[in-house]
Amino acid sequence: MRAVTEDSGTPLRAGSRRRMLPWAVLALWVAVIALAGPLAGKIADVQTNRAVDYLPASADSTQVAKIQDALPGGESTDLVLVYHRDGGLTAADRATADRQAAALAGGHTLTGTPRGVPAKDGTTLMYPVSSTEPGQDDDARKAFVDEVRDVAKGGGGLSVEVGGPGALIVDSQEVYTSLGGPLLYTTVAVVAILLIVIYRSPLLWLVPLVVAGVADALSMAVVYGLNRGFDVTVTGQSSAVMTILVFGAGTDYALLLVSRYREELSRAARPYDAMAAALRGCGPAVLASSGTVAAGLLCLLAADLTSSRGMGPIAAVGVLCALLAMLTLLPALLVLLGRRVFWPLVPAYGSTPGQRRSLFAAMGSSAGRRPVAVLACGGVLLGALALGAFNMPGALKQEDSFTSKPDSISAMETLAAAYPERSTRPITVIAPTDRVAETMAKAGATDGVAAVERGRSGGGWTELSVAATDAPESAGEQATIKALRDGLDGSHVGGPSAQQMDLETADARDLKIVVPLVLLSVLLILIALLRSLVAPLLLVAAVVAVWGAALGIGGLVFEPVLGLKGADPGLPLLSFVFLVALGVDYGIFLMHRVREEALSGAEPTAAALTALRTTGGVIASAGLVLAATFAVLTNMPMVSLVEMGFVIAVGVLLDTFLVRTYLVTSASVALQRTIWWPGKLSRTPAAPGPREPELVRNR
User: Fold this and answer.
1) DSSP secondary structure, 266-313, as one string
2) CB 614 within 8 A of CB 348
3) Torsion angles phi and psi, residue 32, rounded to 5
């Protein structure tokens, strides 16, 4: 570029543009945030965390919920008041329970008069309570449950708990609502600490962190717009994952850009010119990697499960907003702050970057000496770890879905212990009103059914409450639900336990559909980027092996170490999508650099080892940041988030420090030019000449 002067025409105008462009970008982002900020604050208003909102529209339990909403009074809030005394309930206890139940009936419009059901051992008394007053309004439902809890009080050895599906919904929503602040603060703190360690600067770490925060606000506003405009389902889980991705992936992109910018400052006199060169160098890599991640995530649109289908575009929005901010706002801020942002290690113009002994050079050399042995040992290790998946706990039950028990879960456990002869969670059957007598008779004669009670009617449908003889979510109750669905033609069978069964069925179906789509889309993108077939297949096989090993480690840790009593049915699918998409992200940086070295005429072994030496530090830093951000989820109060955070964090670390460092490098050395088959590089070495823009250079 020409130098800027004050006494010439074109250079002066160019210099003026250079001074104004960063300010213009900054002003544009200020305007964007001013518009997006109010919308970002509304994302909590559109979150939904009921089990039925996760289900596919075609599920039998979803049909039950929809018909219930249309019955007189609309959606009902079903609660269970649980009175318990270890030594046995006294007459005064029963009088207290009767008085409180009567107070609720007098103060609210209930669907029926609460009647106490005593346990056989005399220690527990339960009162089912149902009301249509709150309807579908979450705030009204919470207010109703809170008022019930204020009325139902114990004391003097009498414990009173409020459980049931309605209480569980409220407790779940409160947990997800409370995630926003702690999740954001913890993520910011973790990323800040890592950036301070990586950059060793009192100021530089703050710039990408602020930019990530801006990207997070923009992504929340965009997701709110998607919900309003296209009815995209937003759950507490998808919102949490989006925030993690914005800070994790966004910081990764920042690390790559800042690393290249620091190097270019030693070659360019002006920060603007250095940033322009940095963007030309690493911009294509960042665009390619983020596009691959977004494409993989959007494959979730093929999922039948509503929550998974919504997770795809929401997570993709997070990645793309992070990309936009890191390629526009971050460069503008760095240019405006100048070289001093790197203080005390300010890169001077004309200086030579210090050469430090590279850990990755030593690791690469060890992999290069015996590539086949290293590759075989690594493959055996990953395979052995994957066997741990067979130790994965069974499907996660509702009572085990929290790391700390809310009131509704405690009530559920008390009921299960006190009423072993019957289920305390009703199965809901929606039957045609003109066949209700026949349906009740068939349901009552079904194996595993203890009682059938008629409820509301409307719109040609009648609601039946079926009590099973087996505990909720047990194999016996599941068999009863299946028998009801097989035997009651024209009826729909739902309720909490049926919803959990439908969730598991949908997750199993989605795993078979989405996994091949993700693999195919990622493979096609890699083939286009690397102009090879073998290298993309190697990268895809590597990330699949990482996913299996990470799940296996989860199976060895979840129950034996962490005490988690079940695994979320959606864990295999979601962890696969994230680990494949994010793992290939790093593979692009490494293999593209190997290809650059090969194009410059380097021999295959030298190309692989040089690529590892020059990209290893940045990729390792990025991997640590991404793993740490997902590890934040392990501190959340929902078991599903803990498990997802653990598996993805472990997978990213395996991918960063084992697969990329040793296995991919060893495979590149072992396969030599075959890795670029059927491209030109597989047949003849490239003649030395002008090199393509480098993706990542040594820090």
Assistant:
1) TT-SSHHHHHHHHHHHHHHHHHHHHHHHHHHHHGGGG-SSHHHHHHHH
2) no
3) -60, -45
* Torsion-angle region of 531 (φ positive above 0: left; ψ -120 to 50: alpha; else: beta): left
Do 641 and 408 touch, CB atoms closer than 8 A?
Answer: no
Residues in CB range of 417: below 8 A, 6 or more apart: none
Write out pLDDT tens, residues 396-448. Answer: 888 888 888 888 889 988 988 898 867 778 899 999 999 999 999 999 999 99
pLDDT, tens only, 119-156: 999 999 999 998 988 877 778 889 999 999 999 988 88
Give the whole-angstrom CA distance, residue 549 versus residue 36. Answer: 40
What residues have CB less than 8 Å from 355, skipping those under 6 apart?
Answer: none
Two tokens at 699? 């820090």
Residue 429, helix vs strand vs coil: strand
Cis? peptide before 678, omega within 30° of 0: yes
pTM of the model: 0.85
Q: Please report, to the nearest 10 degrees, the dihedral formed by the alpha carbons of residues 269, 271, 272, 277 taken in order.
A: 80
Query: What token pair was written down for 649?
Result: 């964090």
- Here the contacts of 439-448 (C-beta below 8 Å, separation 24 or greater) are 439/464, 439/488, 439/491, 440/464, 442/487, 442/488, 443/484, 443/488, 446/480, 446/483, 446/484, 446/487, 447/479, 447/480, 447/483, 448/476, 448/477, 448/479, 448/480, 448/483
Q: How far apart are CA 240 and CA 296, in angstroms?
A: 19
Gap between the Cα atoms of 418 and 322, Å rounded: 52
Q: Give the other-Cβ count within 10 Å of 228's Cβ.
A: 12
Q: Which helix (H) or strand (E) element contains residue 526?
A: helix 496-530
CB 546 within 8 A of CB 382: yes
Mean of the per-residue pLDDT values for the chain? 87
Q: How wide is the angle at C-alpha 228 spanned by C-alphas 227 and 229, nearest 5°?
A: 95
Structure tokens at 4: 């800027």
Could you tell me the maximum CA-CA distance found in the chain, to the nearest angstrom? 100
Q: How far apart are CA 492 and CA 432, in angstroms?
A: 9
The length of the chain is 699
